[in-house]
Amino acid sequence: MTSEMHGKVCLVTGANSGIGKSTALALSRMGANVVMVCRSRDRGEAARAYITTQSGNESVDLLIADLSSQRATRQVAEEFRRRYERLDVLVNNAGAILGARQVTEDGLEATFALNHLSYFLLTNLLLDVLKASASSRIVNVSSAAHEGATIDFDDLQSERRYDGRRAYGLSKLANVLFTHELARRLEGTGVTANCLHPGVVATNIAKEAVLWLRLAWTLLRPVLLSPDQGAETVIYLASSPELEGVTGKYFIKKTPVPSSPESHNQDVARRLWQVSTDLTRLGAPTRTSGSTG
Ligand SMILES: NC(=O)c1ccc[n+]([C@@H]2O[C@H](COP(=O)([O-])OP(=O)(O)OC[C@H]3O[C@@H](n4cnc5c(N)ncnc54)[C@H](OP(=O)(O)O)[C@@H]3O)[C@@H](O)[C@H]2O)c1
């Protein structure tokens, strides 16, 4: 174990598998106090045991939430706030590609709810803690799948037509638009927001995808990046001193690169922010602190 991240609290969603698990392990090895958010207690406990053993760092906490549920996301944010006074790094990573259209308990298309709205809601619910802990960082795991996607505000929930890869691309574009808008809103606060494409990585991401994609993923596995390789840019954004003050950027292989033209459309980003605020009821009067509106 090293000490670069000693004293830092790092929350990683989807930390029991793939890129999130490798990220949690690396941050733990750097001495951070890692808080894993996982939807399955069994899978989360198994990953936590692995991470503490491999890192030699006992400061690995586990919170349970199905992040496609806004109720569960709010509960996990509250639980985090009860346990911790600071948050230095928030890694929004949990995600899925869903072959068939699924609807969450909030009545929303599940890919959009999990891959975008959970990033949006969890971040906003923890924003005051992040600001109080500045300088602090938000890392949103997006994908090159955002390229070519557009946001159809008339069919955000893919009700008219559902295609899993299209819904995924839309959600990953939403990650980039959210990162850009968030960085603009956080200017001067000492909280940075960046996003990335991890590469094409041999993880469980396609486990609920359509059959041909699952098969392709299995066949391609030997030539894909390992989860540790896929996590390299996430870890870099979460921990490198070189990134101090860098915000609003999209990275591939630890390098800032241009994201798609659509992801730079500020009107779309502002509108998506407003729609996301409405869908998560963040603007409702019952909300307490944390939202940037
Ligand atoms: N793999 C790639 O090639 C690739 C490429 C570009 C971007 N990405 C992005 O990388 C991120 C991580 O994915 P991965 O490739 O590491 O896949 P993964 O191995 O399937 O990991 C995804 C994680 O998200 C969790 N998760 C899924 N649904 C959840 C829910 N409803 N509530 C809470 N957690 C949930 C999973 O938990 P369970 O184990 O319980 O399902 C798992 O821990 C995703 O945002 C993905 O879009 C991946």
List keywords for this structure.
single chain, 293 residues, alpha/beta, Rossmann fold, 8-stranded mixed beta sheet, 8 strands, disordered C terminus, binds NADP nicotinamide-adenine-dinucleotide phosphate
Structure description:
The protein has 293 residues and is an alpha/beta fold. The chain has a single domain (9-279), classed as NAD(P)-binding Rossmann-like Domain (Rossmann fold, 3-Layer(aba) Sandwich). Helices cover 42% and strands 13% of the residues. It has an eight-stranded mixed sheet, sandwiched between helices. The longest helix is centred in the middle third of the chain and has 23 residues, at 110-132. The structure holds NADP nicotinamide-adenine-dinucleotide phosphate. NADP nicotinamide-adenine-dinucleotide phosphate (NAP) binds next to α1.
What is the rounded Rg?
17 Å
Model regions low in confidence, pLDDT < 50 over at least 5 residues: 287-293
Judging by the overall fold, what is the CATH architecture? 3-Layer(aba) Sandwich
Report strand %.
5-15%
Helix vs. strand class:
alpha/beta
Assign the CATH superfamily: NAD(P)-binding Rossmann-like Domain
Number of helices: 9
The largest sheet is: 8 strands, mixed
Q: How would you spell out the order of helices and strands?
A: EHEHEHEHEHEHHHEEH
Number of DSSP strand runs? 8
Span of the ends, CA to CA = 40 Å
- Say what the CATH topology is: Rossmann fold
